[in-house]
Every structure is written in C-alpha cells, then in structure tokens.
Automatic annotation (TrEMBL):
Matching PANTHER family: SENSOR HISTIDINE KINASE ENVZ (PTHR44936:SF5), SENSOR PROTEIN CREC (PTHR44936)
Alphabetic keyword roster: ATP-binding, Cell inner membrane, Cell membrane, Kinase, Membrane, Nucleotide-binding, Phosphoprotein, Transferase, Transmembrane, Transmembrane helix, Two-component regulatory system
GO molecular function per UniProt: ATP binding; phosphorelay sensor kinase activity
Domain of life according to the entry: Bacteria
Name of this protein: histidine kinase
Domain HAMP: 198-252
EC number, as in UniProt: 2.7.13.3
Amino acid sequence: MDETRAPFETGPASLETVPASLESRPPREVSLFWRTFFLLSLLLLGCILAWLQTFRALEFNPRSLQSARQLASMVNLSRAALVNSDSIARVSLVKTLADEEGVRIAPREPGDMYRPYNEDSLSRRTSELLQERLGDNTIIAREVNNKEGLWIGLNIGNDPYWLQIDPSRIELVAGTTWLIWLGTAALVSLAGAALIARLINRPLKSLSFAANRVREGDFQASQLNESVATSEIRQVNIGFNRMAQKLSKIENDRALMLAGISHDLRTPLARLRLETEMSVDNLEAREHMSADIEQVNAIIDKFLDYARPDHLEASRVSLNEVMEAAIFAMGNPPDVIVKCVIPEKTVVMGDAVELHRVFSNLLENAQRYGKDPITAVVRIDIAAKTKDGSVLIKLRDHGSGVSTEMLEQLTQPFFRGDASRSSATGTGLGLAIVERAIARMGGRFALANSSTGGLSAHMKLPLAK
C-alpha cells in the first residue's frame, strides 16, 4: 500500500503517513427513492411538454383563425348595418347592439389612450389575422382610457369609432390560464411519481434493513412479510427469511461447537500438563513438552478468537487504558522497546476485550518479526490522533518489513509471509483476527511498509461522542 496521506502530528510514529485506503471516503450515495422519483419526474415532465407542444400545434392556429373570423364578421356586420341605416334607426341599432349583443360603439378621439391587444401569443396572433382581414390601419386594443375589454378601432364612413366587444364571446383565453393548467398537471404528475417511487422503494428498504440486521447478528428482527400482494417481492421475502433462519442455525451450531472445543480440548491438555510435570524426570524434556502444550493451547485460543461471532455491542472504551494493559501484558523483555504517545482521555466506540486482543496480537507480531536487523532490538512505536470523528492509530516496528506483493495477503487466514516472518510457529491467524475485530467495531484496518523500514499497522476507529 502506498502512504500518501498527511502524517501524524505527534508521537514517535509521526514520520509515517496514513494509507490511502484508510482515509478514503465512500462515494456520494443517492437513495433508490430519489433516483426513481427523479427519472419518473423527467419522464412525466417530458410527456407534459410534448403534450403542450402538440396541443399548441393542433389548437393554437385554428383557434386564432376562428377568433379572427368571428371578430371580423362582427365588425363588418356592425359597420354595414350602421352605414346603411338612417340617423333615427342608427340610434336604435346602437342601443340594440349594446343590449343584445354586448357590442358598444363610441367615437374615437385623437387623444384616446389605449394599450395594444398583445399580452400573449394567442392575442398577438389573433390581432395579426384580424388586421389582415380588416386592414392594416385597424387598431386592436385591450384597454382604452383605463377601460378594459376588446377594443377595435375602425372607420364608419369618414368618422373614427371604437367598437368594444366582450373577449369571452370569442373564447380568447389568457396565457396565465395555460400556465395554471400546466403547473397543476406538473404538480399532480410529481405527486404521482413520488407515490410510485415510494411503493417501489418500500420493499427494497425493508430488505436493506433486514440485511443489515442479519449482518449485525440479529436474526430475529430480520423477518420480512411473506404475504405481500406482489408475487416477485413475496418470493424474495420468503427466500430471505429461509436464508436468515439457516444462518441463525449455523450461528447457534458454531457457538455450541466453540463451547465444546473449549471444554473438550482444554481439559485433556490440562491433565497432560499435570502428568508431564509429575512423570517426566528430565528437566529439559519436561520444559519442551510444557512448551508444546502451551503452543497447542495458544493455537486453540487463536482458532476460538477467529471464530467468534460477528455481533458486537459497541460501548465507550478508553484507548489509553487498553493500550497500557496490552503493553503491560507483554512483560518487560530486555530486547523490546515500546514508545507510545496517545492523547490523554482518548475514548473510542468498541469493545475493551476485543481491543485488548487486537493490540496484543499486533504487539506479539511486532515482537516476533520486528527486530531491527542492525541492533537486534525490537523497537515498537505507537501513535494516535483524532480526525473527522475518528481515531487514527498506528503501530509500527523497525524490522525488515515484507514484500509489496504480500501486504494484502497478510490478513488472510492461515497465511504467513516470507521465511523471515514465519520462523516462529503459529497459526497465521493473528492479523486476520485483528482485521475481523476492527471491522466488528465499525473500524478499518490496513498494513503498509514504512519508508524508513519495518511494517506499520494502521487502524481507524469511531471516536466516542
């Protein structure tokens, strides 16, 4: 592993850097609900826009042309009736048009103030068509002297007049109406998309929750509904429940097997040690036999440690106390020098027994393989710091290290590196136990060769709040 991150700020291991794999952050995640909702929203909005364009193409031009024809016919009929009637009949005609048809006629003065009828695309198009039919000098206004309506300026004979018509008679619809309808359709579509996305996401969310509970070892809280209406989801739930039941049985069998191994193997080993001490007269042979028995007992401990259940209840643990206990358990070998710099009152979330086991394995590994090739002394440096809600811990030796190809294999069960690091007897489970224990506590573990020689073990644990 390459060491490319910032160095520790204090401590004897401060010259080293943190592996990138330990500092890397997971990519930004998008939930299935929001992804489904976003895709459905794009589809629905695209359909609404396509529908609007189709409607405009099929309805806009015909409506504009129809409105212009109605207005032109009304204007021409009104003008013809007024031109061809005498003065007495003209007064009666104007009154009849106002009362019966809602068409009012008023003289047009040069100082009249008006606003063109061009507030939206439909109005503009209707005005253009109407001017084509009535002449370019025709004025179409939406307000004259602060009075709203549909006003058409025309000449009756040689005199200019205003013809006021109610816009609703020709079914001219304002642009805001289309915006309201479009917004309403978009909101209804988005609400439907959210409902569909939720219905799709709900069973997957339940499955994700149940899978997390199984991962934590809580098999009883991971039962899914086997009576849902959707056949595919029902089959998935049934298969998941059966898998959880089998995993629960396997976990119970493993716990029972571990209890049996612990009892059935340790008891005869204890008797064998007692018989050795009493029956063997040769002191050297007795010491070798006792050492073999201790080694077998240690191997059993390693197997039991590796096979421990994954479920672990995290609690507040003092890193300083656990590290001091692990160093104290080493004894005081004359050829081992340990330098430890950890900030006071550093508290992590984990399990004290598991952490003690982790540091004991790392210290044992460093003591076995971390001897300085020049001074023949084992120097172990330990440092820790807090960063972004986590505690970064580094434990390194000053031995010969390992080849780059073997770094990732060192945490594999029963694997041991080259001859220089496998001269002592063992199971090859020490670093595998460390990696599993750190993962159970919600942390991360990585190994790296130090730039100044030796092997560095890097750990990242959650910082207790």
